[in-house]
Design goal:
By secondary structure, the protein is an alpha+beta fold. The protein is 42% helix and 32% strand.
Length: 245
Amino acid sequence: MSQLVVKTYNPKQRAVIAVVSIALVVISAWGLFEYGRYSAGYDSLSASSEMQQLEKMKLGLERNIVFLREQKTALQQQQQVESQAYDEVRHDLKDLQDENLELKEELAFYRGIVSPEEGAHGLRIQGLQVTKNAKEGSFHYKLVLTQVLKNDRLARGRVEVKIEGIREEDGRQENLTLTDVTVPKRAPMNFKFKYFQAFEGDMEMPEGFVPIRVSVTVDPSGSSLESIEKVFDWTVGSLTDVGEV
């Protein structure tokens, strides 16, 4: 006759056994993994120490980068300040050179009035200067008339300026008056002075017109002063004095 065996079923016990079994498997696998690494020459303690050293090196490099960036910014600011100071000094030097040249020209001008050349008398055309403007074909002119100091009478009269040139398209010669080219148009120049007088303004050359010479005629009123005429070769700057006519 067979016997009936009754066993008690405990689900908690089974779950604990399963968890313990899985943990043993994981621990065994990890142990085998570490053993394999150790057999291959891997030392976890050395690796950890090396990792710490690398972290320290990383922090040191990061601090060095920050320092270098700050140094770069400081040098850039210093360079900018020095460059600005250099530009200012260069600009001031140019201004001083220009002022020095201008004073020399003025000194020569007044010396010509106070201590004229021997035999100089009456009216004189001190000089004619032409400078180029930014606009193409546009120029600024300055004409100076003088009378030596020993002539203390008042000079009056009229000045005529004629610009001689050619037309590029056919080489034809053409003469223009200052009134033709001044901007804005100006009336004929009348002078009235005791020692000197300056005339200046802007002029625009017609398209295709090439200036060659400029003649200046000073026609005083009355019989005490003689008329004079002087011709200048056209150059941008102080025009070359060809001589009196």
